Amino acid sequence: MTQAARQIEASTELLSFRVGGQDYSVDIMSVREIRGSARATSLPYSPPYVRGVINLRGTVLPVVDLAARLGLDTGADSERNVIIVVDLGKRAVGLMVDAVSDILAIPDSELQPPPDMVADDTRTFVSALTIVEGRMIRVLDLNAVLPPQGEEAA
Amino acid sequence: MSDPMEEIRASFFIECEELLESLQDGLQAMADGDDDAETINVVFRAVHSIKGGAGAFGLDDLVRFAHRFETAMDEVRAGRLQPDADALKLFFVSADLLADLVRSARDGTDAPDDVISDVLAGLDALGGAAPAEPEDDFEFQPMALSFDFADPAPAAPAGFAITFTPSDALYASGNEPLYLLRELGESTVRCNTGALPDLPDIDPERAFISWDITLHTAESENTLREVFEFVDGLCTLDIQPLHAPLSDILPPPPADMPALPAPIEADRPEPPAATPDTPRNPAEPRSDTAQANPTVRVDLARIDRLVNLVGELVINQAMLSQSVVEAGLPPNSAVVTGLEEFMQLTRDIQESVMMIRAQPIKSLFQRMARIVREGSAAVNKDVRFVTEGENTEVDKTVIERLADPLTHMLRNAVDHGLESTEKRIAAGKPARGVVTLRALHRSGRILIEISDDGGGINRARVRQIATDKGLIPADAQLSDSDIDNLLFLPGFSTASEVSNLSGRGVGMDVVRSAIQALGGRITISSTPGEGTTFAISLPLTLAVLDGMVIRVAGETLIVPLSAVLETLSLTDKDLRALGPQTHVLQIRGGFVPLLDLGAELGYRQPKQSYVGGIVLLIGQDDGQRAALVVDAIEDQRQVVIKGLEASYGRVPGIAAATILGDGQIALILDPVDLVKNASGRTRIPSTPISLAG
């Protein structure tokens, strides 16, 4: 494909990051900001993957440990953890990840639906797959990350 | 909102709401036996003003109805009609309908025609041979004719022309002409400066000025002379009765000589005394205007923005205090004292801002009066509705969100709470049932009580229904209050048949969740044969709270101060083991369940020993108590409430979150919810059991 054709074709900009040793990405339009990790106040009766809440300039932001949510190896907490603040329509949530990697423009034709794999529930969280420089990047389905609103965590 | 006509229209409807409110007030006063002419006038004027405004906007339906209503009220005003209970009932219904018509005119919806014609027929019957029909066509023409005008006009008062010439001695003895002139009341004062010499020749110790006063008054000449009694002999006073025709009296004096009503002192030759700071003269005939406080209508969004900003200010100030403490400045340094003043100011600002949002709960109570009236008519019960504490101020948002739950509960009180008239008479009670709605402030919260003097909760039946519906096992051991609380279970309805008033499947569970969403709680108390009371306890404001900062298991939490009855430190003899996993606290002869806050919130396992621990005694609205074990009490401060529900969802035992001085988020406990769902586990049993959850 020539350079010119590439530009005409519709593409999606993705923010890619590493979590639990894997490459994931989210649509950059839903990213509100990226910030360093902060000590979260833990919420009682919350699912293990909910780290707690942090103060984001006066608002209360729930933070999800994405590795734990995806069932990946969480590893040790380090100062290098990064929180990606994403918009989920009416509310925002912070995703705790290992590191932010890159911003990628991926033509829509190169985004493939993930194959059905019964063995794990990763399928629920991944809306598409793509390959960049030989690495497989998973596109995260943000709506699956938090439990549905109003659901009591008890 | 650029259309100016739209804006005028909108403000007309806002005014209508206020008029409808005073209409309700007036009718209620009349129903309570107040037959004062002014009360009746207020009612009449409210209807009249709505009619006038409606005429200007061409709202014909509204005008037609208001006119007939007004005609009937006019009969009352003129004393030709003595309103009895039935007439008053009709007036109340008419006021409700008027409110409906106003709202349907505003929203462009249709009004219920059939009801209107019934009511109109009733009103016409009251008005006797009221010549309603022929007048109908041109009725809103005379709307500009304010009847207030008619009051002063008929008795055109006589007046006096006064010439007042003070002598030097008057000033020398410390008298002040201005006070005298003011005491005369409304008058036209003309200053005579003819005797005034040229500026270089003025002797400041002498008097040169006299005044001509034209005064319209019904008072006698003697009364006028009394005003000048104290300066008798110190001035020349000439009082002549005024014989001018009415046309001369009404307009102000001609413009050839400027009338100088106020700036008299400017012409005074003698050294001016300090600006006369006259107290308001009680003789001035201006008592009615002084009463009403001027008000401003402000968009609620602006107030909300202000409330949020003040919230941020409070957090910011807390952060500042913390850094001052960390900087280790001496407590008497200028920064620390300045900061203390700043804290005081912040608190004052916050309270003032909160007060803007607070409104008397009256408007809500009036809406509820209508619910009860309509409800009692629908089930054919004679009900007296009593409201107390209408001026209790409550946050506007709370008022708005209380309307639905209160409506539901009042319908219940009328429909299920009160017995039928026959049953009441058989039970030796007055035939007329009483439903009371009461609002009051109690220990930093607002308490709203809905009580009826009906038969009370039929606990045997409640239990039977709950068992039949499978809500509880048939052999459940339940206390009276447990049974009462079954009413709050989803899908519970005790009415044996569905009446057209309540019992549509929406139950008290909806009411309770609505109250809980406001940070409130609801409790029932009921005495068989005497009635049932529902008590709703609400926070004063949804934005700030006085809290106790505590630490438990390494986490900082806030406990609402209003919930903490006392704090104590545990000793060996206070603590009693109850079951294998639970403790009670013995306090002044009573036993209170002991709860480990850390364990209840899942932060840690129950401790081995609680001796020496700190305990918060938590009081609940129903008088139950519980003891919460915490690790430390750190501080007591005002915190800004940040909702968790919008960003995360409801967390059991947690009411909201707040931001502390160091920028960290702390959770605000909901002690009552926590205690209700508590496991009470304060001991690790010797046999290992699963501790999950």
In the CATH scheme, the class of chain A would be Mainly Beta
Low-confidence blocks of residues of chain A: 150-154
Q: What is the rounded distance between the termini of chain B?
A: 55 Å
CATH architecture tag of the largest domain in chain B: 2-Layer Sandwich
Largest interface: A-B, 28 and 27 residues
Give the DSSP E fraction of chain B (strand runs of 2 or more residues).
15-25%
Which structural category fits the helices and strands of chain A? mainly beta
Question: For this structure, what is the CATH class of the largest domain in chain B?
Answer: Alpha Beta
Global structural class of chain B: alpha+beta
Strand content of chain A: over 45%
- The N- and C-terminal alpha carbons of chain A lie at a distance of 53 Å
Mean pLDDT of chain A: 81
Kindly state the percentage of residues in helix of chain B: 25-40%
Total domain count of chain A: 1
Indicate the CATH topology of the largest domain in chain B: Heat Shock Protein 90
Write the H/E string of chain A, N to C: HEEEEEHEEEHEE
Descriptive labels:
heterodimer; A: 154 residues; mainly beta; OB fold (Dihydrolipoamide Acetyltransferase, E2P); five-stranded mixed β-sheet; 9% helix; globular; B: 693 residues; alpha+beta; Four Helix Bundle (Hemerythrin (Met), subunit A); Alpha-Beta Plaits; 5 domains; six-stranded mixed β-sheet; 39% helix; extended; disordered C terminus
Description of the molecule:
The complex is a heterodimer of chains A (154) and B (693). Chain A is mainly beta and 154 residues long. Chain A has a single domain, classed as CheA-289, Domain 4 (OB fold (Dihydrolipoamide Acetyltransferase, E2P), Beta Barrel). Chain A has three helices and ten strands; from the N terminus they run αβββββαβββαββ. In chain A, the strands form two sheets. Chain A has a five-stranded mixed beta sheet. A five-stranded mixed beta sheet of chain A has the order 3-6-7-5-4. In chain A, a hairpin with a 2-residue loop joins strand 4 and strand 5. The radius of gyration of chain A is 16 Å and the shape is globular. Chain A starts with a helix and ends in a 14-residue tail after the last strand. The C terminus of chain A is likely disordered. Chain B is α+β, with helices and mostly antiparallel strands and 693 residues long. Chain B has five domains: 143 residues, Four Helix Bundle (Hemerythrin (Met), subunit A), CATH 1.20.120; 114 residues, Alpha-Beta Plaits, CATH 3.30.70; 60 residues; 179 residues, Heat Shock Protein 90 (2-Layer Sandwich), CATH 3.30.565.10; 133 residues, OB fold (Dihydrolipoamide Acetyltransferase, E2P). Chain B is 39% helix and 21% strand. Chain B has 21 helices and 22 strands. In chain B, the strands form five sheets. In chain B, strands 14-18-19-17-16-15 form a six-stranded mixed beta sheet. Chain B has a five-stranded mixed beta sheet with strand order 6-8-9-11-10. In chain B, strands 20-12-13-22-21 form a five-stranded mixed beta sheet. In chain B, strand 16 and strand 17 form a beta hairpin. Chain B starts with a helix and ends in a 17-residue tail after the last helix. The interface between A and B is medium-sized, with 28 and 27 residues.
